[in-house]
Amino acid sequence: MSSVDSRLPGLRVGVSALFDPDETPHARTFMRALAVARNCIAGLERVQWRFLDDAADAVRGADVARHMIDWKADLVIGHFSSDAAVGAAPLYRHAGIALLTPAATIDCLTLEHHNVFRFCPSDRQLAADLVRWLATRQWPRVHVQADDSAHGRALGVAISAALASAGLQRVDEPGQADVEVFAGRLKPSREHWQARRQAGSTRPLVLTDDAASPYLGRAAAHDSNTFVIGFGAPDSAGNRCQAQVLHRSLFAAEPQTYFRESLLMLYVLAEVARGGLRAAQLPDAFRHSTFNTPLGAVSFDQGELRSATTCVWTPGPTGLSRITR
C-alpha cells in the first residue's frame, strides 16, 4: 500500500478489551502489545485512538460498540472476550465497521459477521485439533465440561461436535472417561484443575486456550496428566523470535498468552494506517489483501487467519512446556 499524505487525518481506531489486570492477566499482555507497537511499528504514530473497557461482557460490549460508532471509528480492534465480541459484532456490521480480534475464538463471529477478522484459531479449529490429538493418545471416551461464559459454552459445543465427527464418545460422568476436557476462561480453568486434583483425580485433564498462561500455575511433580490446547506459533524461528525480542526490549520479560496475536494484529493495522484507507474500504482490504509482517504473512479466508495454528502444552513443575508443534 502507498503512503498517505501526512496532512490527512489519521485512521480512527477504537480499542476495547477488559483492561484491568486484576481481573485478567491478559489485560496487561494486550496493553504491552500496544506499547511495543506504538514504540516500534512505523505507521501508528498518526492513528487516532479511543479506548473503552468492555468488561468482557456482552451487554457492555454492545454499549462500547455504540460509542465507537458514534465516534465514527474507521476500525475497532480488541474485544478479547468472545462474550463481549458477540455483543459488539452485529452493531459494527450494521455500521460497516471492521472488527479485528486477536483472541475471541467463538465460531459465530466469523460465520455470522462478514466484518470480523480473527487473528487466532476459531473454536472449530481448536476442537478439531484437540480431538485429533486425543485420538493419537488413544483416549476414546471423553468427558466435556465448560464454565458459564459464552466462550466456554460455545467451545464445549464445538468439542462435542468434533468428537462425534471423529467417532469418539462423549460420556456423561468423569468416571466413565479416559480423559476430561474443561473449556473456559483462565480463572475457572485453574480452579477446576485444582479442584479435580484435590479431589484425588489423576485422570488426564485437558484445559483450553485461555488457560495457556503462566498464571495457570505449575503442576505438582506427580501430576503429568494435565494439558492445555492453545494457540500455536509459526514454524519459522525468526518469526517467533521477533515478538519475543520486541517484548524483552521494553519489559525485560518473556511475552505471555495472546501477545503474538495482538502484535500481529497491530502490524496489520499499521499497514492499513499507512495506506490511507477508511472504514468503507477496510473490510474488502482485509478480505482480499496479504499483509507481509515481521511475524509472517497475514491473509484471511472468510474472516479466519489462514496461518492460525494450535499446539498442546503441559504445566509442569517449571511452568508451561510445549509438547506438540
Name of the CATH class of the largest domain: Alpha Beta
Annotation field: number of helices: 10
Rg, nearest Å: 20 Å
Separation, N- and C-terminal Cα atoms: 33 Å
Number of strands: 16
Q: Describe the main β-sheet briefly.
A: 7 strands, mixed
- The helix content, as a percent range, equals 40-55%
Secondary structure class reads alpha/beta
State mean pLDDT (0 to 100 scale): 92
Keywords: Receptor, Signal
Organism: Pseudomonas congelans
Protein name: Amino acid/amide ABC transporter substrate-binding protein, HAAT family
Domain Leucine-binding protein: 45-187
How is this structure best described in words?
It is a single chain. The protein is α/β, with parallel strands linked by helices and 325 residues long. It folds into two domains: 11-121 and 239-305, Rossmann fold (3-Layer(aba) Sandwich); 123-234 and 310-322, Response regulator (Rossmann fold, 3-Layer(aba) Sandwich), CATH 3.40.50.2300. The protein has ten helices and 16 strands. The strands form four sheets. It has a seven-stranded mixed beta sheet with strand order 7-6-8-9-10-15-16, with helices on both faces. The longest helix has 17 residues, at 150-166. It is globular and about 60 Å long. The model is unreliable at 1-7 (pLDDT under 50). Belongs to the leucine-binding protein family. InterPro entries: BCAA_transport (IPR051010), Leu-bd (IPR028081), Peripla_BP_I (IPR028082). Keywords: Receptor, Signal.
Features:
325 residues, Rossmann fold, five-stranded parallel sheet, disordered N terminus, BCAA_transport, signal
